[in-house]
Give the backbone structure.
Amino acid sequence: LIAYLNGRFAPLAELTVPVLDRGFLFGDGVYEMIPVYGRRPFRLAEHLKRLAASLAAVRIDNPHDEATWSALVLELIARQPFGDQSIYLQVTRGAAYPRNHAIPARATPTVLLFADPLNPPATVLVEQGVAAVGMEDPRWQRCDIKTISLLGNVLARAASVDAAAAETVMFRDGLLTEGSASNIFTVKNGLLLTPAPSNRMLTGITYDVVLELARRHGPPPVIRPVTEAEVRSADELWLTSSSKEILAIVSLDGIPIGNGAPGPIYRRMYGHYQQFKA
Ligand code: PDD
């Protein structure tokens, strides 16, 4: 697999970064995961815009303009032996010595990109849905930044791994935030409900696509705080992400959501999404 690090393409297994890289020492960096269908990146401009916003939020100068990023991503895609790809893109603040929390005056960001084969969810998951567990959101107050500091997400995901479930749905102050690596939608009485973008969640690219599709095809989305009680009593519960697309959550903490199978509104939205990404 050909990857990219700081200006050169090379096999992923040959690439190394210095131990003083602040990504390694502090989790001081940001990332994106961009799905690629048949060598065409999906919503690349939106991913690059979110990358720029994450970099600005953590005060790392964006090492490239949008055209250069696009060219890099397209070249990486062209160099892979497979068409459906998941592009991982990471920028850290770079190496600095001595170790010090203070942001160094001069550091050269470390830029890493690599591709994996993209495996959209298996048909059985689309048709039968997945299990999830709920937990109190353990993360910090800037979940809107797509940072590589993911320990909160990792520990949240561990709870669903322990329960042999596919995702952990998180709540803060009695309100839905998001999944450990996804955004969450509910359907109740035919209404599609999801929280508004805020510091409590990442604004997913897939979240935006689903809202766009809901505005176009219905049901009209209602964007407002969603309570834990509303999640647990929803008719339908969905997760969305670039890698999982849209999946129905059919049980939460072992209790069925709706009738315990993917609902009609999910199936319609899944169809719209498949057409949209094609
Ligand atoms: N994760 N919220 C969190 C915490 C996420 O990690 C992700 C995606 C999302 C959905 O964002 P998007 O629709 O832009 O993929 C929401 C990616 C897939 C990852 O960590 O690999």
Summary: Residues 33, 153, 178, 181-183, 202, 204-207, 240-243 surround N-(5'-phosphopyridoxyl)-D-alanine (CB under 6 Å). The first helix runs from residue 22 to 26.
